[in-house]
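ok, trying the design again with the full structure, not the truncated one.
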């Protein structure tokens, strides 16, 4: 199967916080493809760009959600501003009376981290900003949104990060600030699992693999149509996946009445594809984190046989 059917989430309401581009956009669209009403938030709109200064907007994401079969609603929101988040949640409560899925995908720090740069050499302001964007935004959003989510039994919270708990435990990730940011989000899901589980809701941490986001494709000088050309520069890019793959992972979790079994755990798109049977848009099932451990990190030649 490609993903959950169009009617699976027809009566469900989701908030994808940080849905302008990348995983957030892919998740919002796939929730829409399953029939959900999806509120998409971010700071980049058709009227005003964030400091990213990129062309993607939340209105574009909302249109894609609607085109996929759901209902997309764009709400400009800075998730570092509690009053804006409070107003957002009040609007969802007023318009829908419920919230079934909360996806905390706020990040916005690609331009802030410095690869393989030790703490004392890393720009301190950029590092502090990264932690605020990656950690504080998630806490603010959950603080305001969870009371609404808990009104209806069976709610799902997805904390988006980079790397599984197992992989990040044993692997230094990019820099001090990046490592701490991604580890913190993993721990958020663990903590929320303890707080939400007894109250009838489920929290998980979820990571895509090597994701072909708009920014990643641009960095390699390719498009989604010719992405294989990037393998000439980086052969391991062969394991990469679209943002819609992790989107289908979220849609599958949201549609699973037994999702409580995952409560508090760290999950990946490739792992859940094996469980739920969905595929990426090309029909494959890339398992990037297993590939990275067993092939890439061991210095093996790029060979995705058995991994997608």
């Amino acid at each position: 199967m490609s993903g959950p059917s169009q009617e699976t989430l027809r009566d469900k309401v989701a908030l994808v916080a940080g849905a302008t581009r990348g995983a957030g956009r892919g998740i919002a669209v796939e929730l829409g493809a399953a029939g959900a009403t999806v509120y998409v938030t971010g700071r980049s709109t058709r009227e005003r760009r964030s400091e990213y200064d990129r062309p993607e907007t939340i209105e574009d994401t909302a249109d894609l959600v609607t085109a996929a079969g759901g209902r997309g609603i764009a709400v400009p929101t800075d998730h570092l501003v509690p009053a804006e988040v409070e107003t957002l949640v009040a609007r969802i409560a007023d318009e829908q009376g419920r919230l079934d899925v909360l996806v905390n995908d706020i990040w916005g720090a690609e331009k802030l981290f410095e690869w393989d740069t030790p703490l004392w050499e890393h720009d301190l302001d950029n590092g502090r900003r990264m932690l605020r964007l990656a950690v504080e935004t998630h806490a603010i959003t959950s603080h305001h949104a969870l009371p609404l989510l808990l009104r209806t039994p069976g709610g799902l919270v997805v904390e988006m990060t980079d790397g599984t708990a197992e992989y990040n435990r044993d692997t230094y990730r990019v820099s001090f600030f990046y490592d701490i940011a991604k580890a913190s989000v993993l721990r958020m899901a663990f903590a929320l699992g303890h707080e939400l589980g007894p109250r009838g809701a489920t929290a998980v941490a979820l990571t895509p693999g090597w994701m072909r986001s708009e920014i990643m494709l641009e960095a390699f000088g390719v498009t989604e149509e010719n992405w294989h050309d990037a393998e000439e520069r980086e052969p391991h890019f062969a394991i990469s996946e679209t943002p819609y793959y992790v989107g289908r992972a979220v849609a599958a979790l949201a549609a699973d009445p037994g999702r409580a079994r995952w409560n508090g755990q760290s999950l990946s798109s490739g792992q859940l594809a094996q469980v739920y049977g969905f595929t990426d848009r090309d029909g494959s099932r890339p398992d990037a984190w297993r590939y990275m451990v067993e092939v890439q990190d061991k210095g093996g030649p790029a060979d995705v046989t058995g991994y997608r």
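Keeping the full-length input from now on. The two ends are 15 Å apart (CA to CA).
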